[in-house]
Amino acid sequence: MKKIATIIVTYNGEKWIETCLDSVLKSSYNTDLFIVDNASTDGTLKMVNNFPLYLEKLRFNAGFGYANNVALKELLASNYDYFFLINQDVYLEVNVLEKLLSFAETHPEMGIVAPIQFDGKGEKIDTNFQQYINLSEEKENYFETSFCNAAAWLVSKSCLEMVGLFNPLFQHYGEDRNYCERAKYHQFKIAIVKETKVLHDRDQQMSTEKAIKLAKIKLLTIFLNPTKTKSESLTSGLINVFGISKYLFKKYRSYTSVFELMKEYLVLFKKRNELELEKNKQK
Q: Where is the Glycosyltransferase 2-like domain (predicted)?
C-alpha cells in the first residue's frame, strides 16, 4: 500500500478548516495529515487541535511555498511515496485521493496529478480552473496540461527529489507555475484527471488589482522558466506585457495595466542576470 502524506498550509482559516479536515479524514484512502500554520490569529489552531494530525506552527506568515517546504524537507527523508498538497479551503470527495493515486501509479511520467476543482457548492467547475482545462490537451481519461494551480496536487516522491522544493522567491502566487515549469524541464508531465472532484471554496470573482498582481508575478515566472533561454525569456516577457494588458483592458477596462506591467518588466530586465543565475540553480 502506497503511503501518502497530506500537507495543508493554514492561515486564519477557521471558515474552512474543519470541513477541509473532515473531508480528508473521511477519504476512502488513508493518509497521514500534516499542517503547517502561518501564525494564524483567529480560531484556526484551536480547531486544528481537535483532529489527529501533525502540526508545525510558524512564528510569522511565511507564505504558501515556504510553509509547504517546511513539511516537505522533513517528509522527503521518510518513506512516503506521494505528497498531497491541498489548500485549507479545499474539500475532498470521498474517493478522489484513491482515484488520483490509481492514475499516478499507472502513469509514472506524471510528476503532478490534480483533480478537477469545482466551486464551493460543487455545482460547477471553478472559473479559473476551467481556463486550465481549456488550455490542456484532452486525452481519454485525463487532460495533459502545462499548468494548474496547487490548491490540490498529488506529487510523486520521484518528482520532488528531482525538481526540488518551491522557489522561495515566490511568497504567495506564482510558486506553483514556477514549479510546473521546472517539472517540465525535468521531463515530468502534469495531468488533470477526469471523473475527479474537489470543492474549492473561494471567491469566483477576481478584482482588477489582483489580476494585475498575478500578471506581474507571471512575468517573474517567465524570467525564471528553465525551459527558456535568456533571450527567449526576455522576448516572451515583453510579448506578455502587451498580451496580458490587452486581456485586462478587455475584461476589466484597466487603462493602467500596460504601464504597471511595463514598469515591472523593466525592473525584472535590470535583474535579468541575477534571475538567470537563480533559474540555473533551480534546474
A: 7-158
